[in-house]
Amino acid sequence: MEVEGLRIPELLVEMLEAGRWPRDSAEALQQNNRSLVAEDRPRMLRKVYLYSPPFHTVAQILRGSGAKFYSHDGALHELVAEAVVEIADFGMGSDSPILLDYSVDRSKPRVMSLEWPGRGLPNYWTVFADDFAEFVDRLGL
Questions:
Q1: Backbone angles phi, psi at 76, to 5 degrees
Q2: 2: part of which helix (H) or strand (E)?
Q3: pLDDT by 10s per residue, the chain, length 141
Q4: What is the DSSP letter of 37?
């Protein structure tokens, strides 16, 4: 599976095939009733909402309805829009996307999340996991 030439990690493809990751919007919406993240994880992590395919690069999102968010709040200057793919967020109303970031290594994307420090400070991107396997492990998926 690829998104704009970026190869989705094989582990994510396997999880989709096994039903361990939402395969469509109906399965994704079920997360509003029951999180897929292991219950023994910290409360913030249990709110992670996994997106279903088709996945999109931030460049694709900028050409659509997400341009306002990324331009205003998404610390776009820290991203290579063509090299990041949205895969999740921190739940309803969070406005904190979780991205696969291929800008450092196209064969092993790291996982980034948007931080909102508040107090008038600008938002910024932080490394959530060094690779997708670590992300899955942290969430207990």
A1: -55, -30
A2: strand 2-3
A3: 999 999 999 999 999 999 999 999 999 999 988 889 888 887 778 889 999 999 999 999 999 888 888 988 889 999 999 999 999 998 766 688 999 999 999 999 999 999 998 888 999 999 999 999 999 999 999
A4: S
Q: 33-40: long-range contacts (C-beta < 8 A, 24 or more apart)?
A: 36/139, 36/141, 37/139, 37/140, 37/141, 38/139, 38/140, 38/141, 40/140
- Rounded-to-integer distance, Cα 34 and Cα 86, Å: 21
Residue extents of the structural domains in the chain: 2-139
Residue labelled with tokens 């968010």: 69
Q: Is the peptide bond before 97 cis (omega within 30 degrees of 0)?
A: no
102 DSSP 8-state letter:
-
Structure tokens at 8: 């989705």
